[in-house]
Description:
Elements: E1 12-16, H1 24-38, E2 43-47, H2 57-61, E3 65-70, H3 72-82, E4 88-93, H4 109-121, E5 127-136, E6 143-146, E7 149-152, H5 154-164, H6 172-181, E8 188-194, E9 197-209, E10 231-237, H7 241-244, H8 248-251, E11 260-265, E12 267-271, E13 275-278, E14 281-285, E15 288-299
Parallel strand pairs: 1-2, 1-3, 3-4, 4-15
Antiparallel strand pairs: 5-6, 5-15, 7-9, 7-13, 8-9, 8-12, 9-10, 10-11, 12-15, 13-14
Helix pairs in contact: 1-4, 5-6
Amino acid sequence: MLMSSFAHAEKIRIIFHPASGRGRGRRRAQQLAQQLGVLGLEHELVDTSVTSVEQVGGRLRASRIIIVIGGDGLIHHCIQHVAGTAIPVGIVPAGSGNDFWRMTGDAKAEDSLAKMIAFCRQPGATTPIDLLELRFDQAGGSPRYALGAVSWGFEATVNAKANALPRQLGSLRYIAGLILCIPQLRGWHSEIKANGLEFSGSVLAASLANIKSLGGGIRLFPRAEITDGTAELAIVRGPRILRVLPYLPRILTGAPHPWKVSAHLAQARVETSRSSYADGECVGEGPFDLSVIPAGIQLIS
């Protein structure tokens, strides 16, 4: 993937949704904008409750720096427009899960804000991180990008259930969604083909992950990294949930168990009839190809 120049870049753009984190998104965006104003740095606040990320895609690609203040879903929509560019991208958490932000190593949102201000004042080196490129057959093979994990089947069902629960629950939405979905869980057929791996069988849960956690810190993928050029495959195989339930604590910590299939893959072909979710968003249905794109995003770190 070619890196595009931003020699003619314009402003620093701050992307936020005012409802994120029960108003924390708005407050942190305003705080950052105020600090940039004091420094005399030209910037623009982009309120995605008024203008969608899709509507401002061209402006994002013309930015000097992009700072996303929100959760995994907002980050997901932004990276569709800046994947493969040299534009520095910063993350300040204000979502319900913030699983990608947890990979940055920052202890709290204030640390991230201070980092953004320092970088805008004096830009330095960024960290090139991997992207997951997804090409669904039903979408004609056009690419969709993800930073976190793509899940199909049960995890996708949990994601959909969690998204329908009140946002006030925060990271508890995933746990509540998981509990509500367990009675419905049945195995389904899935196939994964990659160099050195071929799997075909009944699956209860399946993901390919670039990050260590889902659902606000549940470390399902403890060996995943955002800079190693691979995605961690995590499958819970089996036809029925009752056999697997005793291992649930191990599943939720990414530990080995008899029903686990795990590998690190740079590319994979996934055959499924199910919907897939990535970064908390529904990204497609049915079979797809996954490729890990090294240095797909330049992260302010």
